[in-house]
Amino acid sequence: MEKKGGDSFRFPGKLLFLAVLALVFMTLLLRDRDRNPFISSHESAQNQYTTPPPAPACFLHDPSNSSVSMEPEMKTNEGNSQSMTIEEREEASENVDSSATSYPPEKEDGNKNGTSLVETKVCNYAKGRWVADSRPPLYTVGCKYMQRNWACRLTNRTDFSYEDYRWQPIDCKMPEFEPSDFLRRMQDKTVAFIGDSLSREQFQSMMCMLTRGEGSPDVEDVADKYGFLKLIRKGAYHHHGWAYRFRSTNTTILHTWSARLCDRKPINATDPNTLYAMHLDGQPAFIRENLNQINVLVINTAHHWSKTMVNMDKEVMYVNGTPVHDKFLRNIENAKIFKVNNIVKWLDSELASHPNLQVFFRTTSPRHFFKGEWNTGGKCDNLVPMTRGSEVLGDESSDKIVAAAVQGTRVKILDITALSDLRDEAHISHYGHKANDCLHWCLPGVPDTWNELLSAQV
C-alpha cells in the first residue's frame, strides 16, 4: 500500500518539473532569437535585395597613381631644316588626332577605412556644339595686346563669318565671360600661360577679353618684375615674356616662352655657339622659380616636338644629367610623352604644398593643312564654318597623351582639341601673308573660346 501510494505521489511532481523545464527552454530560445546564426544569415540575405546601390564615383583621382604608358600614340610629321620663322617652325610638327573630346575616364577609389569616396560630377565643357551667335566679338580688332598679323580684319580677308559662332556645352551651361567678374575672382592672383606661340595667342586673347580691346590706365606693364627683357634679334625687338597687372584687383596676367616645357641650359656657357641641354626630366626655370607666385598655371606643348625643330634650337636631349642614348627615348615622340608625364607628375607633387594653385594642361591646338603640309602646298582655304560638323559628342579626349598624363592627378585638363578641330575656316590662312598659316587662329576667334572654358573652371 505504501509503495503504491508513493508512486502516485511522485508522478504529478515529474509532470510539474517537465513543464517548468520546457517553459525555461522556450524563454531562453525567444530571448536569444536575434543571436541565432541561422536567423541572422537569413535576414541578411533578404536585406541585400532592398539596400540601394552606392552612388557612382566621378572624377576620383589617386595622386599616387601617376604612371602611364610610354607607348607612342601620335605620329610626328617633320618639316625640312630650312630657315623658318617661329610660326613656320611650329607648322613643321606632328599631326593631331581629331576624334571626340572630353575629360579623361573617371576613376574610383576608397579611403583608409575601406568606404567608397564620392565626389560631385564635374561638367565636361569640351562636349557640346558650335551654335550661331549674332553678338559682336568680345573685343575690338585694334586691341593693343594682340599681334597685328593675328587680326584677320586687318588683312585682305573679306569674310568674317568665323566670328559668328559660340561654343555651347551639352550637359551644362557655360557662364558668359564677364571681365569684371573674372578679375574679381582673380583678385590678388597671378594667371600664367606658359608654352609655345599658341600659348602666347591664348594669353593675348585673354588680355583683349579683359580690356575689351581698349587701352586702360588700370593696366600696368610689369614685365620687368619677371625679367622679361627685350632681346634684339636681326634688328628687331623680341620679348621672351609679357606681364600685365590690373591695378584695381591686383591681378597679373603673364606669358613666357617654353615650347617643350623642359629645363634648358647651355652646355658650354663660355661658347657663344654652344649647344643647349634640353633636360626632359627638368622643369622650365620660370615655373620652378615663380611657382609660389602663380595661382592659375596654363601650360601646353605639342608642335615643337620634331627632330628638325630640336636641331634648329641647337638642343640635345638630356635625362639624369647626361645625353640621352636610350633608343626608345631618342624617338622624338616618345621623348614628348616622357616630358608630358614628367611635368604633370612634378606639378601634381607640388600642388600638395601649394593649396592656392590650380594647374591646367591645355590640349593640342589642331593644325588644318589640307592637300599637303605647310611646306608642300598645304592650305586651309575654306571660309564656310562647320563644313565638317558642329558637334563633339564623344567622352574621351582627342589628345590621348595629355589625357592619360593628367588622369589620376590634381592637374586639370583644358580640353580644346576636338572643338577647335571643327573650325578649320578660322585660321589666318594666306590672308596678309606670303605663306599659309593653318596653325594660328584669327583674333578675335577660337582662342577666345579656350579662355571662356578656362574662366568657367577656375
Automatic annotation (TrEMBL):
GO terms for molecular function: O-acetyltransferase activity. Residues 63-115 are annotated as: Disordered. It is a single-pass membrane protein. Residues 122-173 form the Trichome birefringence-like N-terminal domain. Pfam families: PC-Esterase, PMR5N. Keywords: Membrane, Signal-anchor, Transmembrane, Transmembrane helix. GO terms for cellular component: membrane. Residues 174-456 form the Trichome birefringence-like C-terminal domain. It is found in: Membrane. The keyword Cell division does not apply. Belongs to the PC-esterase family. TBL subfamily. This is Protein trichome birefringence-like 14 isoform X1. It comes from Theobroma cacao.
